[in-house]
Amino acid sequence: MLRQLRAAGLEDWFRVRYFNAHVDISSSGVHPYRLHEVRALTGLTFEEMDRLPFRDSPSDGQERLRRALADRFKPGQGHSPFVGNGSTEAILLAVSALVGPGDEVVVTTASYHSLSSLAESVGAKLVWWDLDLTGGQADLDQLRSLVGPRTRAVIVNFPHNPTGVTLTAGEYRELLSIVDHHGAYLLWDAAFAELVYDDAPLPDPSASIERCVSFGTLSKAYGLPGLRVGWCIAPSSLFADLARMRDCVTLNTSPLLEEIASRVVENADAVLRPRLEQARANRAVVIRWLEDNRDIVAGVVPRGGVTFFPQIIGVPDTRPLCEFLADERGVLTVPGDCFGRPDRIRLGFGGLADELGTGLDVLASVVRQWISGRRQRVVA
Ligand SMILES: Cc1ncc(COP(=O)(O)O)c(C=O)c1O
Questions:
Q1: Which atom of ligand 1 is nearest to the CA of 85?
Q2: Rounded distance, CA 85 to CA 230, Å?
Q3: Per-residue pLDDT tens digits for 237-273
Q4: Is 253 touching ligand 1 by the criterion CB < 6 Å?
């Protein structure tokens, strides 16, 4: 598996630049919480933390956390939560358990790296489902033409990172029925499920179909990326296979992190609300920015999540631009090539309002200079 694993361009980019950025308009999550804020929002006390024994946790996660997740996400019959060190671990475990050499796997493009590269690394044949980047909609007719008797799994993420595309309730039901009709597994990455602006979050697919695994995380909507707690909701019959892989990777999650995570999930609405409100206000800024800068950026309004993926008009490869922004102006963005689209740029609007405003202003002014500089060089 490891020898075939493609490098994760996004992580390579962040490894070098994330920790030096002054202004971050790159991230896919909301502004991270501090521990004291989490304690205030959830009622967790230091005394409770002090009493915690650092024993190993069960392979599928601490009971209280699993119960809180089940109460919130309401798995269907025969499905339940399995906790991981971030949803990254849960994705690894599920793909390893379900996908093998020669399997056909339908994945969206642009794609978050582990949703495609893990399946590829075990020898699956990837079949790409192009999300329509200009129209901002998922083309379900195209999906229907890609899924067939040889499809082992369909791996999708809605609301989608990086484009912000998501599904209506009707489109969601259609997607489930396309996948289910062919007996394929749906691997449903719901990292941004609760970061939606116009409609209610889409329900866990296990409420409707049997052959599915969904992924969730506290890293995005909950503002706790460094806590490293995620999960999958999977058929209980798969748990032994998930644990088999976990036994060779991490064994379990820290009981301290699981204790904090339990409180967060039990108080989910209180934790989500402030950051969702901030994201909603920031999204209005993004909509205005896209309109005001139509001469240099073309992109659709993100319908969910806190990322968008516009084209920079006249810049076929945004990497040198992103390097300049980060290294010379301290503004962190993500080059589109990290998602296989060099003509795009991944921008995040989940952070602080001031930071977003400053970052977007600097980006627009640098792009104008960049384009006119190129024109001058071409004329000269
Ligand atoms: C679509 C998607 N899924 C999963 C993850 C992994 O998140 P974590 O491992 O922090 O739960 C990310 C992180 O950026 C993501 O964008």
A1: 9
A2: 6
A3: 999 999 999 999 999 999 999 999 999 999 999 999 9
A4: no
Residue 108, ligand 1, Cβ within 6 A: no
What pLDDT digit, counting tens, does each position of 219-241 carry? 999 999 999 999 999 999 999 99
Indicate whether residue 189 lines ligand 1 (CB < 6 A): yes
CATH topology of domain 54-268: Aspartate Aminotransferase; domain 2 (3.40.640)
- Of 16, 52, 362, 73, nearest to 194 (Cα)? 73
What global pTM score does this model have?
A: 0.96
Tokens of 144: 């229907």
In eight-state DSSP terms, residue 163 is: T
Q: CB of 334 within 8 A of CB of 10?
A: yes
Do 125 and 102 touch, CB atoms closer than 8 A?
A: yes
Find the 87 Cα to ligand 1 centroid distance in Å.
6
Does ligand 1 lie within 6 Å of residue 225's CB atom? yes
Strand, coil or helix: 119: helix
Q: What angle (nearest 5°) sits at the alpha carbon of residue 106, between those of residues 109 and 252?
A: 90
Q: Is 87 in the pocket of ligand 1 (CB under 6 A)?
A: yes
Residue 312: which H helix or E strand, with range? Answer: strand 311-312
371 DSSP 8-state letter? H
Query: Which of these, 187, 170, 167, 191, lies nearest to 179 by C-alpha position?
Result: 187
Domain extents for the chain?
2-34+270-379, 54-268
Q: Which two tokens stand for residue 370?
A: 């960049």
Pairing outcome for strands 331-332 and 125-130: unpaired
pLDDT of res. 132? 74
Ligand 1 pocket, 304 CB below 6 A? no
Q: Is the CB of 157 under 6 A from ligand 1?
A: yes
Coil, strand or helix at 369: helix
The pLDDT of residue 371 is 87
Tell me, in angstroms, the distance from the centre of ligand 1 to residue 275's CA: 18
Q: Which fold has domain 2-34+270-379?
A: Aspartate Aminotransferase, domain 1 (3.90.1150)
Q: How far apart are the first and last CA of the chain?
A: 51
* pLDDT of res. 4: 84
Which residue minimizes the CA distance to atom 6 of ligand 1?
88
* Confidence label for 375 from pLDDT (cuts 50, 70 and 90): low
Closest CA relative to residue 30, chosen from 288, 276, 285, 309: 276
